[in-house]
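Session log. Operator J.P. requested a structure for one protein chain; no other inputs attached. Running the standard single-chain path with token output.
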Amino acid sequence: MSGYFQPSYSAARKAFLRGVGADSRLSWQRTVQHPLHGAEGEKLAMDVAWLGPVNADKLLIVQSATHGVEGFAGSAIQSALLHQCEALPQGTALLLIHAMNPWGFSHKRRVDEAGIDLNRNFVDFNHRPENRGYEEIHSALIPQHWDQASLLQADQRLQDFREVYGAQIYEEAVSGGQYTHPAGLFYGGKAPSWSRVQLEQLAAELRLAERKQVAIIDVHTGLGDYTVGEVICDHPPGSLGVQWAKHWYGTAVTEPFLGTSSSVPKLGLIDFFWHQLLPDRCCFVTLEFGTGSTEDLFNVLRADHWLACQPFGSVSEDLKQQIHQQLLEHFCPAAEDWQQEVIRQGLLRVSQALAGLASL
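Structure written below.
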């Protein structure tokens, strides 16, 4: 099953489009061209495929590469779904959105071309939220120099903050979303990103708000225990979305708002777009495949963002390659057991979501 993983964005896109073209369930297809080119000079796009009846009231949406470099796993699951080509439940359709953030997927970065974390971008920019904790530790997260002495000093500042405020507040400060430092971690932007605009237009064109029951699975990697596909549900506790999730996915469901998840509550999630579009008619979950500790996640991102801030030619090739490789290995481990578990669990969650929709 690990054979569905591809070595690059361009290879993943070709595999996805090849699968779409051969799928007898295909009813509608769209390529949304990105204005920039990829790391290999290739064209970039958000590719969308609708499988099953176009007027279906029940719909399952599977998204990949909301965080660009995490797209290898989501794309592999989507390709596996296309390869299976199983019949959909009556009155149910499947919408595949491949490469929500194609620039980040191609360039193997978590953010987009503007440094925006798409999964912090869904806020009202007339009333941008504040993250004072991030303000306090930004310069320690991305120190001016990437040498042992500078890193030791920066890490001590972060440890001091964590000891004063606790691990929960520390994680929320780092990863909860910030809107003041464009070069910083988990930056939500100052306006809707290209990807957000395309998603909003796509939802309007496909009349998604008119569907009666919708399940969304957004595939992510990098947070949580190795090989574990955590089903994270950011619907309000006790809401219908949570009830559906627990009924469909069972004990795999965790809730950041209740402190049962490896993820802390966050600002500007793509979840909130779907919650608002389909109040009491959707179940959105993040399928998060773990690869290591939260601290490892933060550290590979710190290095990546530091590198992106450096003038061209000022960093040795060895250090650049080391940072790139550590980032890629954290978000898409090369180990066959991890990749096989991604496909196995991904297909299982899709099957559970389709069965859940059929039971409503």
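Operator note: The longest helix spans residues 336-359.
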